[in-house]
Amino acid sequence: MSKGTVGGGGTTMLRRINVASVLDAVRRSAPAPLRVAELVERTGLARPTVAQAVDELLDAGWLQQHGPDSADRSLGRPAIRVSLRGRAAPVLGLDVGPHRVTVGVSDLAGRKLSLVRRSGPGWTAQELLGVIGEVITEALAEAEVPAEDVAAVVAASPGIVDEHTGRVQLVPSVPGWSAIDLIKHVRGLLDCPVMLDNDANLAALAIAAARGGTGTLLAVQWGERLGAGIVIDGRLHRGTGAAGEIGFIATGPDDVINPEDSRGPLERAVGSEAIAALGRQAALDHPESRLAELGGDQLDTADVFAAAAERDPVAQAVVQQVARAFARALAPSILVLDPTAVVIGGGVARAGAVLLDAISDQLRLLTLNHPKLELSALAEDAVVTGAMRMALDEVWQRKLPTPAMTSTT
Amino acid sequence: MSKGTVGGGGTTMLRRINVASVLDAVRRSAPAPLRVAELVERTGLARPTVAQAVDELLDAGWLQQHGPDSADRSLGRPAIRVSLRGRAAPVLGLDVGPHRVTVGVSDLAGRKLSLVRRSGPGWTAQELLGVIGEVITEALAEAEVPAEDVAAVVAASPGIVDEHTGRVQLVPSVPGWSAIDLIKHVRGLLDCPVMLDNDANLAALAIAAARGGTGTLLAVQWGERLGAGIVIDGRLHRGTGAAGEIGFIATGPDDVINPEDSRGPLERAVGSEAIAALGRQAALDHPESRLAELGGDQLDTADVFAAAAERDPVAQAVVQQVARAFARALAPSILVLDPTAVVIGGGVARAGAVLLDAISDQLRLLTLNHPKLELSALAEDAVVTGAMRMALDEVWQRKLPTPAMTSTT
DNA sequence: AGTATTTACGAACGCTCGCTATCTATACTG
DNA sequence: CAGTATAGATAGCGAGCGTTCGTAAATACT
């Protein structure tokens, strides 16, 4: 019964294609309302066709009608304008960490309706599920979205996520944590598709969407842990499921991966804990340095970068060492992927230009096409934003009958 | 005048979609001929629609009609069967190296019609153009394809190729060689689109096509030079144009890329020349070894692997060293890409299991998901095959109006 | 050898849809 | 208050697909 090739059919298929084409055109210009004439121009369809499609979409609740714009003082009869009715299918993004739960609600147009964050001092797995439920209801209330309207949920989880089964390897930090339980729990609260993905992947998706356009993006999440997501022309690259695990890159000439350890060599070498440790050691060796002054005994990763920004040579040496190790580890992948840009997010990204310049200098020696090196502008919201983004993509893919639309906006 | 979104139109558009759908169904089952009833089943269209489309495609020369199969002893009136008329748009693949020119002609169904190879002791750029012309006409004659029928040409060139302009950086080996001249020259001989791409990319495309299906493939070409191509779900990944340049991966802790040098650190460390040099040195150090016996003074890369296969410890040590350096250089990229398979082709691939096992052992220590590690079955034909494949893809993309077809065969 | 059966091709009819052209409605301008 | 420009609504036409029926060609049975 499996039809091999979709793509043809009767005239009703054609109709659906055209309706989808109109809807897609509206989506592209969201949140700006569009006049029918503009839709005619953008879709290349005839006016009656577009009008009929718009009627249909209005009835189905996908579009909403606007009154004539008071600012639009043009000649002639004022045009009816339509725009995406975002609340037709709101989506939910989850970012679940051991100490923090973030939930975001977005409408179809990608407008953020609400964002609720709750921090705690480390929950148990059971408590965490409870907290997640609370935060979800809170976020939905704030967005004024009934639970039954939610069209898709994407949750972010650290570790390596099997895209379909939702199984997670290498789960850290929360004992007894199971993403399968999470999925079940959420599906119990909200009757809609629930998906799970790696947090670095989702952050990459968000950053790619913010940058827009095509090309290859390597988005590094750099905190205590180290991961990366790859987005190629808007699509996430997953490999067999574990793509982007840069934390496990070997650094020393004799490093190997220890399957028992949930952290990889590069994480141990340049993760935020390692940076702080290097800083503390340097402060001990050079008690006269600005670094030692700043940090004292409770020296933090941020202190290292602050001291380096003040041109303390001791701190600068630490940053140099970290940048060198990072660049050497990443350079092979940059040569292979040849990305348009490399974006660094996560806690360490707060270091700013000090670190970025040091890495950039190193990469210049080790790569052919030097990609743009940037800091993530999304800061700590990257993962939730990406989760919402992915949920949106899922909804659109499910709702739009036409598989591929040309992306020439 | 630029219409933003294609995808809708009148009924003629629908017709074109359906015709394309039928053509695509025939293509999928090539070279097996299909009955109309089978096409009806596979496309999901009604019989008259399919029949009309088939008529149209027969008139246009895309399909050819078969007599009833004598082996098909079924009841009832024998069905007319149609199959792809490969000669409707034959394509040409070129593999141009300093010492060897290979030209392949393929029909639309991917059947190899001819393959002509000519070797020489190093031509000048001018001579090379002449040789290329000769080999092309020879290959076309053998395939019985008139020059004016050729629908697309793809040429392989070493170095980094800008996909559109055809400009080449890092050209080695042939002084005065310009890929632009090549394109002009070929376009003079054959009036059709001529494209150029990196040889490693094309080899990767061929290997991916041979393996079939989806997933991520990292195809390494390992000879004197070292390059790789990445194919993700059938599509080549180019990055900004220089993806896959693994030859430039730094090996030593202080390696840097020298922009003046056309060869990169890894090439210098484990290219076939380097392997031979390591072998010669080992033979000098251990004149009693099997390696020294085999190779003598003119010791070759092949001798090293042969001696290692005979369990000569000296040669095995060399292989071990090479495998280690290669695996350490490639491991980061495998972690990032997480490919389904890594396939090694090129001259060094002739080493066989000795090298493969050594690399595999190393990679097991350095990666999370261990990809399948294989040798290319295509041997020296990989690049031409890939060139033909790419030319085919180009023709199909140009001819099929529908952008995306589901790939669930 | 003649008939029945099975399978496939071919043609006519009706339906839906989109495009062109025309007409009506609305608001601003002089 | 008339004129004009823009937008929305409506009728007619053409094209394509799907359904249905009739016909052709081969095999199997009597």
TrEMBL record, chains A, B:
<comment type="similarity">
    <text>Belongs to the ROK (NagC/XylR) family.</text>
</comment>
<dbReference type="Pfam" id="PF00480">
    <property type="entry name" value="ROK"/>
</dbReference>
<dbReference type="InterPro" id="IPR036390">
    <property type="entry name" value="WH_DNA-bd_sf"/>
</dbReference>
<dbReference type="GO" id="GO:0003700">
    <property type="term" value="F:DNA-binding transcription factor activity"/>
</dbReference>
<dbReference type="InterPro" id="IPR000835">
    <property type="entry name" value="HTH_MarR-typ"/>
</dbReference>
<dbReference type="InterPro" id="IPR000600">
    <property type="entry name" value="ROK"/>
</dbReference>
<protein>
    <submittedName>
        <fullName>Putative NBD/HSP70 family sugar kinase</fullName>
    </submittedName>
</protein>
<keyword id="KW-0418">Kinase</keyword>
<dbReference type="InterPro" id="IPR043129">
    <property type="entry name" value="ATPase_NBD"/>
</dbReference>
<dbReference type="GO" id="GO:0016301">
    <property type="term" value="F:kinase activity"/>
</dbReference>
<feature type="domain" description="HTH marR-type">
    <location>
        <begin position="20"/>
        <end position="69"/>
    </location>
</feature>
<keyword id="KW-0808">Transferase</keyword>
<dbReference type="InterPro" id="IPR036388">
    <property type="entry name" value="WH-like_DNA-bd_sf"/>
</dbReference>
<dbReference type="Pfam" id="PF12802">
    <property type="entry name" value="MarR_2"/>
</dbReference>
